[in-house]
Protein backbone atom coordinates (compact mmCIF):
# COMPACT_ATOMS: atom_id res chain seq x y z
CA UNK A 1 0.00 0.00 0.00
CA UNK A 2 2.61 2.56 1.04
CA UNK A 3 5.45 2.33 -1.38
CA UNK A 4 8.38 4.67 -1.02
CA UNK A 5 9.15 6.53 -4.21
CA UNK A 6 11.85 9.05 -4.97
CA UNK A 7 9.33 11.89 -5.12
CA UNK A 8 8.72 11.47 -1.38
CA UNK A 9 12.33 12.30 -0.65
CA UNK A 10 13.05 15.54 1.20
CA UNK A 11 16.70 15.27 0.23
CA UNK A 12 17.66 15.05 3.91
CA UNK A 13 18.86 11.61 4.85
CA UNK A 14 17.60 11.36 8.43
CA UNK A 15 14.19 12.84 7.54
CA UNK A 16 13.78 10.36 4.68
CA UNK A 17 14.69 7.54 7.04
CA UNK A 18 12.04 8.67 9.52
CA UNK A 19 9.40 9.07 6.81
CA UNK A 20 10.20 5.55 5.59
CA UNK A 21 9.64 4.26 9.10
CA UNK A 22 6.20 5.94 9.07
CA UNK A 23 5.47 4.20 5.76
CA UNK A 24 6.41 0.92 7.41
CA UNK A 25 4.01 1.53 10.29
CA UNK A 26 1.32 2.40 7.71
CA UNK A 27 1.97 -0.91 5.96
CA UNK A 28 1.73 -2.80 9.25
CA UNK A 29 -1.68 -1.21 9.82
CA UNK A 30 -2.70 -2.12 6.28
CA UNK A 31 -1.79 -5.76 6.91
CA UNK A 32 -3.94 -5.78 10.05
CA UNK A 33 -6.90 -4.17 8.31
CA UNK A 34 -6.82 -6.55 5.36
CA UNK A 35 -6.16 -9.78 7.29
CA UNK A 36 -8.95 -12.22 6.61
CA UNK A 37 -8.79 -14.27 9.79
CA UNK A 38 -11.36 -13.96 12.56
CA UNK A 39 -8.83 -13.60 15.33
CA UNK A 40 -9.17 -10.75 17.75
CA UNK A 41 -6.73 -8.03 16.78
CA UNK A 42 -7.44 -5.62 19.61
CA UNK A 43 -4.00 -5.80 21.24
CA UNK A 44 -2.21 -5.51 17.91
CA UNK A 45 -4.29 -2.55 16.84
CA UNK A 46 -3.72 -0.76 20.13
CA UNK A 47 -0.01 -1.49 19.96
CA UNK A 48 0.37 -0.21 16.43
CA UNK A 49 -1.58 2.99 17.05
CA UNK A 50 0.54 3.63 20.12
CA UNK A 51 3.66 2.99 18.07
CA UNK A 52 2.36 5.41 15.44
CA UNK A 53 1.83 8.07 18.10
CA UNK A 54 5.24 7.61 19.71
CA UNK A 55 7.13 7.61 16.46
CA UNK A 56 5.17 10.56 15.14
CA UNK A 57 5.95 12.65 18.21
CA UNK A 58 9.61 11.74 17.90
CA UNK A 59 9.68 12.60 14.19
CA UNK A 60 7.81 15.90 14.60
CA UNK A 61 10.15 17.01 17.39
CA UNK A 62 13.10 16.18 15.20
CA UNK A 63 11.73 18.25 12.30
CA UNK A 64 10.75 21.16 14.54
CA UNK A 65 14.17 21.32 16.18
CA UNK A 66 15.83 21.34 12.79
CA UNK A 67 13.53 24.07 11.46
CA UNK A 68 13.98 26.12 14.62
CA UNK A 69 17.77 25.76 14.60
CA UNK A 70 17.98 27.26 11.12
CA UNK A 71 15.26 29.88 11.59
CA UNK A 72 12.68 28.53 9.15
CA UNK A 73 9.98 31.18 8.88
CA UNK A 74 7.02 28.83 8.45
CA UNK A 75 7.81 26.91 11.62
CA UNK A 76 4.69 27.97 13.52
CA UNK A 77 2.33 26.99 10.73
CA UNK A 78 4.14 23.69 10.29
CA UNK A 79 4.00 23.04 14.04
CA UNK A 80 0.23 23.61 14.01
CA UNK A 81 -0.18 20.90 11.39
CA UNK A 82 1.90 18.54 13.53
CA UNK A 83 -0.25 19.29 16.57
CA UNK A 84 -3.41 18.44 14.61
CA UNK A 85 -1.96 15.08 13.58
CA UNK A 86 -0.96 14.14 17.12
CA UNK A 87 -4.37 15.23 18.45
CA UNK A 88 -6.06 13.03 15.84
CA UNK A 89 -3.98 9.98 16.78
CA UNK A 90 -4.80 10.55 20.45
CA UNK A 91 -8.49 10.93 19.59
CA UNK A 92 -8.51 7.65 17.65
CA UNK A 93 -7.26 5.89 20.79
CA UNK A 94 -10.20 7.08 22.83
CA UNK A 95 -12.70 5.50 20.42
CA UNK A 96 -14.16 2.17 21.33
CA UNK A 97 -11.59 0.13 19.48
CA UNK A 98 -12.61 -3.21 20.94
CA UNK A 99 -16.03 -3.12 19.34
CA UNK A 100 -15.10 -1.52 16.08
CA UNK A 101 -11.61 -2.82 15.47
CA UNK A 102 -11.49 -2.88 11.70
CA UNK A 103 -13.24 0.44 11.35
CA UNK A 104 -10.80 2.17 13.69
CA UNK A 105 -7.80 0.54 12.04
CA UNK A 106 -9.17 1.56 8.63
CA UNK A 107 -9.70 5.16 9.78
CA UNK A 108 -6.15 5.22 11.09
CA UNK A 109 -4.91 3.91 7.79
CA UNK A 110 -6.78 6.52 5.75
CA UNK A 111 -5.46 9.15 8.08
CA UNK A 112 -1.85 8.03 7.57
CA UNK A 113 -2.34 7.87 3.80
CA UNK A 114 -3.75 11.39 3.72
CA UNK A 115 -0.95 12.63 5.89
CA UNK A 116 1.72 11.15 3.65
CA UNK A 117 0.19 12.72 0.61
CA UNK A 118 -0.65 16.08 2.02
CA UNK A 119 1.85 16.69 4.74
CA UNK A 120 5.04 15.09 3.43
CA UNK A 121 4.49 16.03 -0.20
CA UNK A 122 3.35 19.57 0.50
CA UNK A 123 4.50 20.92 3.86
CA UNK A 124 7.66 18.88 4.42
CA UNK A 125 8.70 19.51 0.85
CA UNK A 126 8.51 23.23 1.55
CA UNK A 127 11.32 23.16 4.10
CA UNK A 128 13.68 20.87 2.22
CA UNK A 129 15.10 23.48 -0.13
CA UNK A 130 15.46 25.92 2.72
CA UNK A 131 17.41 23.38 4.79
CA UNK A 132 19.43 22.15 1.81
CA UNK A 133 20.52 25.76 1.24
CA UNK A 134 21.75 25.80 4.84
CA UNK A 135 23.83 22.73 4.12
CA UNK A 136 21.49 20.20 5.74
CA UNK A 137 21.26 16.99 3.75
FE1 LIG B 1 7.72 14.75 8.30
FE1 LIG C 1 6.30 17.84 9.11
Automatic annotation (TrEMBL):
<dbReference type="InterPro" id="IPR050669">
    <property type="entry name" value="Hemerythrin"/>
</dbReference>
<dbReference type="InterPro" id="IPR016131">
    <property type="entry name" value="Haemerythrin_Fe_BS"/>
</dbReference>
<protein>
    <submittedName>
        <fullName>Bacteriohemerythrin</fullName>
    </submittedName>
</protein>
<feature type="domain" description="Hemerythrin-like">
    <location>
        <begin position="12"/>
        <end position="128"/>
    </location>
</feature>
<dbReference type="InterPro" id="IPR035938">
    <property type="entry name" value="Hemerythrin-like_sf"/>
</dbReference>
<keyword id="KW-0479">Metal-binding</keyword>
<dbReference type="Pfam" id="PF01814">
    <property type="entry name" value="Hemerythrin"/>
</dbReference>
<keyword id="KW-0408">Iron</keyword>
<dbReference type="InterPro" id="IPR012827">
    <property type="entry name" value="Hemerythrin_metal-bd"/>
</dbReference>
<comment type="similarity">
    <text>Belongs to the hemerythrin family.</text>
</comment>
<dbReference type="InterPro" id="IPR012312">
    <property type="entry name" value="Hemerythrin-like"/>
</dbReference>
<dbReference type="GO" id="GO:0046872">
    <property type="term" value="F:metal ion binding"/>
</dbReference>
Amino acid sequence: MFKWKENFSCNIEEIDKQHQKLFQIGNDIYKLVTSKDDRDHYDEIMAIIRELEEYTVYHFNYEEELMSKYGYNELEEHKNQHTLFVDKIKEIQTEDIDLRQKKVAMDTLMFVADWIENHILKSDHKYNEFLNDKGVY
